Amino acid sequence: MAAAGHGVAGVHAEIHQHLIQHARVCMEEQRLGRQFELHLDGFTEHSLQHFGRGGN
Prior knowledge:
Blueprint: H1 8-51
């Protein structure tokens, strides 16, 4: 008899866990990407306000 977690069901469960973790990582990357874009947008807007729009 195979040790607990080493049979087909155990491997299937482990793969399922890895897929869930991968999905969470992808979601976190997307969230961080959006935050970074918002930060850059804010930086650009602040720079335009500070230095004048279009060099005026």
